[in-house]
Amino acid sequence: MSKILGLHHITAIAGDAQRNYDFYTKVLGFRLVKKTVNFDDPNTYHFYFGDEVGSPGTILTFFPWANVRQGKNGAGMATEIGYSVPKGSLDFWKARLEKLKVPHNAPGERFGEKHMAFQDPDGLWLNLIEAEQRDDRKGRVTAEISADVAIKGFHTVTLTLTSIKATADILTGIFGYRQIAQEGHVYRYRTDAVEGAALVDLLEKPEALRGVTAGGTNHHVAFRVKDEETLMAFRERVASRGLSITGKIDRDYFFSLYFREPGGVLFEIATDNPGFATDETMEELGSSLQLPDQHEPMRDRIEKALPALQT
Predict the structure, then answer these.
(1) Which of 194, 205, 210, 255 has CA 20 to 30 A from 302's CA?
(2) pLDDT of 45-87, one tens digit each?
(3) Structural domain spans, the chain
(4) Residue 31: CB atoms within 10 Å
(5) How far apart are CA 36 and CA 278, in angstroms?
(6) Phi (first) and psi of residue 80, to 5 degrees
(7) Cα angle at 201 between 197 and 203, to 5 degrees?
(8) pTM of the model
(9) What's 7-305's CATH class?
């Protein structure tokens, strides 16, 4: 099990917190798994959205900063998040997005899979994909979203790069991915360690300008490992390539390392342990504001500074 187990989570930047919460819980049907704060800026929320139990490979997190400037997709960043949906469900999602006036593209096909790309209220690009590969994960069911159409979790993440060579070398030489397909300037890589959240697409655009990380863009991509022992083994592998990588950081719900891969994308490696049910039960997940120990003495001040959130 000393492998990268696909994607763990992806973190993005949003603007208005209430708008962000409403879109991901009410439009897409995700659960707010954890409501906490940015550990480095505790006057800002950190939201974790995912499936019913907060499974790795389903978690999209946000730092919602009010009045944040608009970011711009470009080279050196993750530019699209793909979600796996059941076959035959795109008609439901197309009708739902149209009803709720969510900007979206016409359905298309990529790597033999039907898909439909759309934007969240901050301009973040998402893509619903009817996966050809087996995916037995169960999506979260709500009053408006049934099991046969519910979003299952990550399918792929797309990284835009001026050259894919060095990034591909990290994926194959350290993370254990292998290239399985190419379509135009998009190169698809897969890990066989898991069924879902197993794909990374590299989009090569030599002419692309550097992206601007701000509202409506992705901040970093986190890859999954089983535990801390595996985490630190990967730290040695990354460092042996001459890349600068952090020490182990305790994020309360996982332990992590960060490094910037040669193409410019900020990568994180994160553990499964201890999980999200450490300060709340599974039934209570996301129901109250959770603070790391270092910020608990400032709870009153932090709660007053954070915008009110109607959940």
Answers:
(1) 255
(2) 999 999 999 999 999 999 999 999 999 999 999 999 999 999 9
(3) 7-305
(4) 19
(5) 13
(6) -155, 140
(7) 160
(8) 0.97
(9) alpha beta
